[in-house]
Amino acid sequence: MTTPTTPHNDEWWRSAVIYQVYPRSFGDANGDGIGDLPGITARMEQIARLGVDAVWLSPFYKSSHKDGGYDVSDFCDVDPIHGTLADFDALAAEVKRVGLKLIVDIVPNHSSTEHVWFQEALAAGPGSAERARYIFRDGKGDNGELPPNNWLSVFGGPAWTRVIGPDGAPEQWYMNIFDSSQPDFDWTNEWVQEQFDDILRFWLDRGVDGFRVDVAAGLAKKAGLPDWTDGVDDPADHPFFGDPGSHEYWRRWRAITDSYPGERILCAEAGVDPLSKLALWVRPDEMHQAFNFPYAGVKWDPKGIRAIIDESLEAFGSVGAPSTWVQSNHDQVRHTTRLAMNDDETRTGDLSGLGPRSTNVPDLALSIRRGRASTALMLGLPGSAYLYQGEELGLPEVHEIPDSFRQDPTFFRTAGERYGRDGCRVPIPWKADAPAYGFNTTGESWLPQPSVFRELAYDQQDGVSGSTLEMYRAALRLRHEHNLGHGSLTWIDGLPDHIVGYENNGVRSYTNYGTEPFEIPAGRVILDSGYGIHATAADSHDSAEYGDGILLPDETVWVV
Ligand code: NOJ
Ligand code: CA
What we know:
By secondary structure, this protein is an alpha/beta fold.
């Protein structure tokens, strides 16, 4: 019997498990088919019952809704689609009441073109102080008809859009490394920095415990905005992701969060490779956490997972930061589906997604087995972790969404060549036999839900022993009891290559990446990711019991 060590209450973020809510798709209180803040508040107790420590809300700010709310037109107000500031305050109060912490998104790289700052910049014209808030440049070519450089938008197409003046004449260009509705700020401008100081304070004063910082690797652009060609130029020299110029902005933000009582945190959404470079974002005077996206990018591969864990612990450990594990979010093919595909088509980051024409959609049963096994492996690791709404139900990526419903700008900017991210954003099924599976009471849903959501609905899993939901709850409870977030990892030697085994605070975790059953070394099984997943015809083994001593392929157990 392991004696649980006392959980650390200080620096809660070092070990916290944080649950991501995507407001459009969590709960819809007024029945218009789009999720809202009251719909989240009403379900906060369910989040708390999962056993997580905090909630992160993706943007709910005033928006032009071209990029799922990441095109913000007022950083200090709630979009009417999602509710009001009073609804936000009610949500924050409910988060506290149920004993969680609250993280909100902040989007400092760009605003919406509808933001008054951008509208003023357009009106003020070239050379004005207003234009200096953003990155306006004259075009190249005889008449400025060519973009100022060759950079490409993450969503496809050029990273520049030409302004058409009120008289219909084309004039300067502005930079948009995402959609043309998302002009990039010029962060070398002190005015911009001051506005964001105020935005941070606005939400800190309202009681938030921290921020997930959007595009944290992109604020500083390479001086002189030189041309750059992916696949030709050195990736380490990327002109708008990972430029070291951003570090001074994080030090400035850290001074602000540190000036508030409690541990208010900053979490970097930074696409920076390798991990040794990403770790620079979480040095002691910068951010607290940075999503470990290279971890999320690993295939179902025992060598790959061991290597990335070692690299992560080394890189983040070298700056005294925890690794922040993550497998799924609103930008990636859900990890259930991704790990069962195990190919290169759904690698994190390229936003290809899946759709009706995809030929590589994997089997649901295998997806769920691997998704569960890989979550159990992750939740046994020391450090912090993020979960994405719906993964606790085993939801797969939805590939059936017809083109006419697609909303991701990637889909439009690549003329449908890349499906984009809608498939991981489909509204959550709460009740099998309710309209829109309980997302609301009217049956409206901004993205259509597939029929498989019926059997995966929350009410089909709540209290059902062996369900994916109960496995997540058990893993989170055990993680707390054994203080795994604050532990340290030792690899278990002498195992076959296809078994990944490690020990953390007296708990041994084994995952079977092979095709043969594995006899679990002596001990008491306290978590079994395969428990309750009924044997398929191909499996002669019945995995409906804990502690039968056998670890099947695509399963994880924890043993003490
Ligand atoms: C990262 C966000 O997670 C994604 O959803 C968004 O499209 C881009 N940043 C641009 O804000
Ligand atoms: Ca609504």
